Amino acid sequence: MENKIIDESVQGTATMLNTTKNNVSGTKKLYVESYGCQMNFSDSEVVASIMNKNGYSTTRDIDEADVVLINTCSIRENAETRVRNRLTEFKSKKAKRPDLVIGILGCMAERLKKSLLEEEKLVDLVAGPDAYRDLPNLVEEVGTGQKAVNVLLSRDETYADISPIRLDQGGISAFVTIMRGCDNMCSFCVVPFTRGRERSRDPETIVNECKDLFEQGYREVTLLGQNVDSYRWNLSSKGEIKDSNQPTVNFAQLMEKVAQVSSDLRIRFSTSHPKDMTDEVLEMMAKYENICSYIHLPVQSGSTTVLDRMNRSYTREWYLERISAIRRIVPDCAISTDIITGFCNETENEHADTLSLMNEVAFDFAYMFKYSERPKTLAERRFEDDVPEDVKSRRLNEIIENQLHHSLKSNQKQIGQIQKILVEGYSKRSDEFLSGRNTQNAVVVFPKETAQKGAYVYVKIEDCTSATLMGNIVHK
Length: 476
Ligand code: SAH
Ligand code: SF4
Ligand code: F3S
Hints:
With 476 residues, the chain is α/β, with parallel strands linked by helices. Helices cover 33% and strands 22% of the residues. α13 (348-361) links the parallel β16 (334-341) and β17. The longest helix has 24 residues, at 389-412. The model is unreliable at 1-24 (pLDDT under 50).
């Protein structure tokens, strides 16, 4: 689990994946770079598909690109700073090649709208998360010297009919977006402003996409949404829930449909919200071996009073009850979380509540962040960002240290076990070793023998660090 614990001061965004730089065929060249959460990486594949239909192939080499798009994140201030630095680099390329079109996509595009184009003059084109079908027109508008901006949010856009172009060809694991937007109003969070209203995607198109992926050799799909537990599709009206008596597909039922694509296709999902995660979902996880025993359940804080200020709609006790339900129904389930430290008015006692909750749950891993105030959010309007920077840092360090201890203990408990691993490729350090994940999402490294990428192997766990399990293949 290389990204198991992320101190944002070191690593940037929580869900930051490696930047993707890609390749598919066509005449003009498109270069896409993605930042932020898995949803953005998934959206970049939709963008590549839309552009591909309009004559663009993707390239990994920015210097041969006609169009450069950067898909961005606004979740914390430093996520935006990183993008701004990158845009300044792009601008110097444009100075040498004035025909180069530079566009910004994603959450920062939605948040800052045309200011990046008009005031800061950093880009030629701005497209929000629901405007990607318009990209070919926007690129054309740039060509005719117009201001190309589309940041309209939609109530029903899910790009359901678009088959994403996978940017990691020959990949094993793919993201499949099942819903967009978010209707929760967590007071710290910018997502409802950048992604708009929540809407679910037609389950038939989701299942078909998963079938296609399996046929192309993928062996794992991660179903994505900001709050997957509120997925709901009305079978009669084909979308919006108008009447609660009408037949619907909920998240547990959707997972079952995907699990039935093949028992060799692993299913993961992200993100669950503690207020909505149902026993029905847990029971479905227990029923299907290929639904992975892993839940990411962001708690944010262990203090009920902080949770109330955060507008998370649950208490510490509610969260702990949900953890007991996971332990009861899916006993081998790994649990990870997100924690924000130094939220508005957070006292030492409230911080201590977070540490004690961490000890009570013993998370297998966690993403931990210092609170970063975001414009327009409820917290920005209602509260003061009054925890001093040095206190935020000290609390974050205490939380990270605590988590390292629990991660190491969680890994040590697995020594001696024989685990089923999906092989993802060579390990980072050596081509003599392979790396894959167990059902709990922990990274396992082992000597390659004759095993191939995309295969399932059984590995006996022999050793570990707080981040990685090490072992040897066993032949059953
Ligand atoms: N939809 C998911 C999370 C999306 S953002 C959920 O509800 O859990 C991913 C994580 O970023 C959040 O869980 C939170 O821990 C963190 N985050 C969001 N806004 C933040 C802010 N303003 N400052 C610091 N961390 C933040
Ligand atoms: Fe943000 Fe809360 Fe929605 Fe997650 S559930 S995206 S934290 S508003
Ligand atoms: Fe960032 Fe937007 Fe995702 S703010 S975390 S890219 S939804």
